[in-house]
Design goal:
Elements (H helix, E strand, L loop, with lengths): L1 H42 L9 H8 L5 H25 L7 H30 L8 H12 L3 H25 L16 H32 L8 H9 L4 H25 L3
Length: 272
Amino acid sequence: MTSNAGLATRVRGRSAAQAAGRAGMVCWGLVHLVVAYLALRVASGDGGKEADQKGALQEVGSTAASQVVLWLLAIGLIAFGGWQFMMAARGYTWVPKRGKRMRKRVGAATRGVVVLALAYTAIRLATGSGSAGGNQPQQEFTARLLQLPAGQALVAVAGAAVVAVGVAAAVKGFKRSFLEDLDLPDLPTGTRRSVEWLGSAGYVAKGVVYAIIGGLLGYAALRSDADQAGGVDKALRTLAAQPYGVVLLAVVAIGLAAFGVYCFAAARAHKS
């Protein structure tokens, strides 16, 4: 009886953590929707705030009742980050190939770190003790790497790794392999095709952004100049500066918005 009660308690605890994590995934989707909105503002020539996740939080913080919204986002992101760490520890058991399962777990752990850092930024903004910042953290990190022995090579390797992540995300979108992580019967009736399209467009758009970020790192390594590096905001602005860049940026923004909406569906149907 005691062991059965303990098992029931663990199952309830795990279910509660999963429910909180899925609610957090909705917050992750909302962040991407705001990033898409900021990217469209950059495309239209009105680029006041950084078009990245931190800039999205800053945009949320400029609205009425912003502190309450930021606190809710922070709590949701903390829950989502914790769920990602849980998935990294023992998730993706439905993936048969061990190597692929380990890659997914590493990706979940990395995502957890990024999400928790974003939650920390939301808390700082909500308490008025910090600003969203822009590309400076990426440039500072790149500058530190460049100061190390073989620093240019390290930055080049980092850039190649980020490009590889971007390519993997785009391939995931084209092949629609993200559907493997969803319990498709849990989706509302008649929505599967829409979810497929949203996820495909979203992952391809994120892949483009990551590839540009990796390219910026590679250029920073080539020039030995940390100022050439940057994050999502600089990647989007770099894209906007290219021939037909405004159109391309608008397409990427639509893709990021699609990923945000996809997150709502994934929050309901993601396996755990």
